[in-house]
Design brief:
Elements (H helix, E strand, L loop, with lengths): L2 H18 L1 E6 L4 H4 L4 E3 L1 H9 L5 E5 L2 H10 L4 E3 L8 H4 L3 H10 L4 E5 L4 H4 L4 E3 L4 H6 L7 E4 L2 H11 L4 E2 L12 H10 L4 E5 L4 H5 L3 E3 L1 H9 L5 E5 L4 H8 L4 E4 L24 H10 L8 H17 L1
Parallel strand pairs: 1-2, 1-3, 3-4, 5-6, 5-7, 7-8, 9-10, 9-11, 11-12
Helix pairs in contact: 1-14, 3-4, 4-15, 12-13
Amino acid sequence: MEQTETKALQAEIRQMCKEKNAVVLAHYYTTGDIQECADFVGDSLALARKAAQTDADIIVMCGVHFMAETCKLLSPEKLVLAPDLAAGCSLADSCNAADLAKWKAEHPDYMVVQYVNTTAATKALTDVVVTSGNAKKVVDQLPKDAKILFGPDYNLGSYINSVTGRRMELWNGGCHVHERFSVNAIAELKAQNPDAIVMAHLECKAPVLAMADVKGSTADMLKYAQGNAPQKYIVATESGIMHELQKTCPECTFIPVPPEVTEGTVVCQCNECQYMKLNTLTKLRDCLRNEAPVVDVDPAIAKDAVKPINRMLELS
């Protein structure tokens, strides 16, 4: 898209937001042109909480479907829109409500801790949710003798077990983006840039995390880079974060870790979530114009799904 067309779309979107009393939320993994047009940019739960604190009548969530559901859970009185309902999440899809109900039935004396990257229906069967940024803090506050089912992200659960000493039972789910990072790719980049600091998201596999100097959520990575002197970073998370990293830390150098590929396959030197990239400026404009697609949550599900979020907020 030409820059003049991009600017025109962004101006049209901002005008509609003013006219309709709408706020646009953009996850760090969306494209830069959407992030530049948004009222708030951030991680999923933080965005939903910010939107809930506004007096907006309409929330547009540029991210994936479960994130829009979370917005609806925290702002049930607001109209919640998503630019493309096909923007799903491989991690959320890896454990649906039926899967979790069966797992719970097999472990009747266990409590359920779920990563926030789950559907509302799954949250409704959960005792407490966590984010990648607060998972350790929340789990540390649970009873020491508690038997815990943790899902759906196996890598995050494994990491939390390792730093808390817990022995949580883990669901074998994962994010298709973070699963693709390879130790070899990081080792090659580190050899080429020996002075670089390696940052990795907690959804990455254990061998990747073992190579990281900074381990945490996307927000944790941003905070680290923003709080330290200009440096060079090797970054193992979805490449959309590069926009905010470079914008807020212009004197730093950020090197994205490419996905692991089979021999002979040609790919770009980045690791993208195709679902996040379904969000476009054109779809965002049309979404606001038509006030659709709408994301709703069944009130019966919402009543239970908001409880583990509130429990998490109490503990964190």
